[in-house]
Design a protein that fits this description.
- The protein has about 90 residues and is mainly α.
- The protein has one domain.
- The protein contains 2 helices and no strands.
- Helix 1 runs antiparallel to helix 2.
- The N and C termini lie close together (about 10 Å).
């Protein structure tokens, strides 16, 4: 494997990882912002109040996006195996 192929493989791997993780991270960030705003308005300062809604929101997004995530991962794996060169 030459260096340009290795760099392209690393770049595509990192891009795929970012695309796969982004829905859950964005929903977790939005839920954290909403809960933080509610906590600031009501002056409730408990750590578990912010943790549980974020966990539930991220789990719901994972369940909703799971078919798409698996398709992306399988496509990436298929491309990697098809393009691999055996010496």
């Amino acid at each position: 494997m030459d260096p340009s192929t290795a760099i392209d493989l690393c770049r595509s791997t990192l891009l795929t990882a970012v695309v796969i993780a982004s829905p859950m991270l964005l929903v977790g960030m939005a839920a954290g912002l909403a809960v933080g705003l509610i906590q600031a308005l009501t002056q409730i300062q408990d750590q578990t109040v912010s943790f549980v809604p974020k966990l539930l929101a991220m789990a719901a997004v994972l369940v909703a996006c799971l078919p798409w995530l698996l398709t992306r991962m399988l496509d990436f794996t298929r491309i990697i195996f098809e393009n691999s060169v055996v010496p």
